[in-house]
């Protein structure tokens, strides 16, 4: 198996872009926020800068670009798909650095980000095939980004701003529900299709056994971590609702 030459990496350029956006949030947009919350708000900002564009770029790379690959899970990565991987690798690198610097005890998110980076880096730079399916997963992972980051920003300010509290309370059940459907239903369905594809030899000769098995293990673990996180949010939500009813 020969990994195709997809040109130079754009990771340095995208990394600088995310650093700029992060600093824009930290130093300007959120400069009056509480010192402990500014880093998290800046993380949300780069997440917004990554999420929806990543969805659009992935769909374009997989279905609309002139170099559209064969629509199967082990097709050779195209240069534009490689660009999308670089775009996302840069984001997850900066956001992982954020967590390591400011919230090193947030093991759930750190583990999730490292898992995602492993899949993206090996698919982009080691294997060179299978990007079609991985970018489909990226679409599912990032389609909830606007909801999640709006919810997160409201959460950071809910104790200080009444409007943020109302937004947080109103948005929470919808965000949790959509997130669970995407990560708990659609994601696993796609992963099951990928597993069946590879078990039937669909990737033989192009995607090594170690690669697709490790991808599946990592992706399943990432989905489980996501479900663990949103389940804890649901639990917190019901506890708060129960407490409010008792007080009223």
From TrEMBL:
Membrane-topology descriptor: Multi-pass membrane protein
Protein keywords: Membrane, Transmembrane, Transmembrane helix
Cellular location(s): Membrane
UniProt GO cellular component terms: membrane
Segments passing through the bilayer: 6-29, 41-60, 80-101, 108-127, 133-154, 174-197, 209-235
Residues in TLC domain copies: 36-242
InterPro entries the record matches: At5g14285-like, TLC-dom
Major location category of this protein: membrane
Name of the protein this chain belongs to: TLC domain-containing protein
Organism: Deinandra increscens subsp. villosa
């Amino acid at each position: 198996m020969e990994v195709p030459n997809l040109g130079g990496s754009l990771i340095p350029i995208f990394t600088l872009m995310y650093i700029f956006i992060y600093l824009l949030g930290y130093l300007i947009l959120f400069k009056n926020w509480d010192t402990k919350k500014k880093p998290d708000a800046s993380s949300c900002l780069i997440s917004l800068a990554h999420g929806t564009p990543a969805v659009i770029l992935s769909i374009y790379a997989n279905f609309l670009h002139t170099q559209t690959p064969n629509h199967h899970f082990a097709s050779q990565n195209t240069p534009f798909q490689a660009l999308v991987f670089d775009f996302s690798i840069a984001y997850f690198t900066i956001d992982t650095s954020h967590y390591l610097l400011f919230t090193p005890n947030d093991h759930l998110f750190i583990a999730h980000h490292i898992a995602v980076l492993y899949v993206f880096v090996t698919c982009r730079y080691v294997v060179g095939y299978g990007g079609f399916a991985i970018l489909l997963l990226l679409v599912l992972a990032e389609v909830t980004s606007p909801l999640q980051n709006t919810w997160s920003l409201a959460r950071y300010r809910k104790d200080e701003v009444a409007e943020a509290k109302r937004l947080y309370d109103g948005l929470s059940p919808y965000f949790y529900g959509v997130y669970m459907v995407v990560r708990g239903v659609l994601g696993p369905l796609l992963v099951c299709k990928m597993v069946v594809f590879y078990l039937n030899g669909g990737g033989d000769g192009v995607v090594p056994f170690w690669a697709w098995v490790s991808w599946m293990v990592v992706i399943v673990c990432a989905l489980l971590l996501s479900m663990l996180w949103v389940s804890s949010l649901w639990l917190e939500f019901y506890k708060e609702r129960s407490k409010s009813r008792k007080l009223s």
